[in-house]
């Protein structure tokens, strides 16, 4: 019995000796865990890009067709206005041409805005950095800035031949621009495929024709009519703001994603 007890004690001693290298030192364990925590806390688990990076990303993914059409529209507008400056003296002709360009200007941006929806890529874009609402809002700001830049150049070259003040000319050009954009936004989600572009192009042609109609009578552009033009502009901007808000609400609810 004694020999058996000695053997058991020896085996236990040997087992403890073998397990010695595998024992955990509490101090070392706590130090290692602290290092792991620090490394985890230093990791960026949710990347949030800054505004410059977001804008650069959106500019990068705009189609080449958008920039080409914008350049063509600007070149045609400058060429037409240059020719009119040398050959036309009627102020109403200047206003009619300026109104036509202003009415057509917005369709290029709206078509680009609906491109991802027309090609059923909105859900894929939703999985990247920005959600659909953010993408739509940012693109509308970019396209709006481009359109305002175009309208500024248009107003500068138009008011010289029409002999109206630059402020009044801006009002005259913004009215057809805002009215046409109301139509473009109304047609933005009518079709669930690339046919939407044809609908918007047809709407642009009609908008151009209707925008030139007020120039058929000079009474519409008398000084006394400027407050009426301003009131119409404010009303149309309010309608356009409501349309944009509804579009962004649809984006939040996911109604722009399920198009198939």
From TrEMBL:
Q: Which residues cross the membrane?
A: 64-85, 91-110, 136-158, 164-186, 198-216, 228-248
The answer, when asked if Membrane is one of the entry's keywords, is yes
Which key words are in the record?
A: Membrane, Transmembrane, Transmembrane helix
Q: Which domain of life is it from?
A: Bacteria
Spell out the protein name for this chain: Uncharacterized protein
Q: Which organism is it from?
A: Diplocloster modestus
């Amino acid at each position: 019995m004694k020999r058996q007890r000695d053997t058991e004690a020896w085996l236990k001693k040997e087992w403890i000796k073998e397990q010695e290298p595998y024992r955990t030192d509490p101090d070392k364990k706590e130090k290692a865990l602290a290092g792991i925590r620090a490394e985890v806390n230093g990791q960026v688990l949710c990347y949030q890009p800054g505004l410059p990076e977001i804008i650069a990303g959106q500019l990068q993914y705009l189609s080449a067709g958008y920039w080409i059409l914008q350049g063509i529209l600007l070149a045609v507008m400058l060429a037409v206005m240059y020719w009119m400056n040398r050959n036309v003296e009627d102020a109403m002709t200047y206003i009619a041409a300026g109104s036509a360009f202003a009415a057509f200007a917005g369709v290029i941006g709206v078509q680009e805005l609906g491109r991802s929806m027309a090609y059923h890529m909105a859900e894929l874009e939703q999985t990247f950095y920005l959600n659909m609402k953010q993408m739509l809002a940012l693109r509308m700001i970019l396209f709006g800035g481009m359109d305002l830049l175009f309208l500024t150049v248009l107003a500068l070259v138009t008011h010289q031949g029409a002999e109206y003040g630059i402020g009044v000319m801006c009002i005259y050009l913004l009215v057809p621009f805002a009215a046409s954009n109301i139509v473009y936004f109304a047609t933005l989600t009518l079709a669930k495929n690339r046919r939407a572009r044809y609908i918007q192009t047809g709407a642009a042609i009609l908008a151009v024709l209707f925008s030139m109609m007020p120039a058929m009578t000079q009474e519409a552009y008398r000084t006394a009519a400027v407050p009426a033009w301003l009131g119409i502009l404010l009303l149309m901007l309010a309608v356009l703001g409501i349309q944009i808000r509804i579009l962004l609400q649809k984006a939040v609810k996911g109604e722009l994603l399920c198009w198939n």
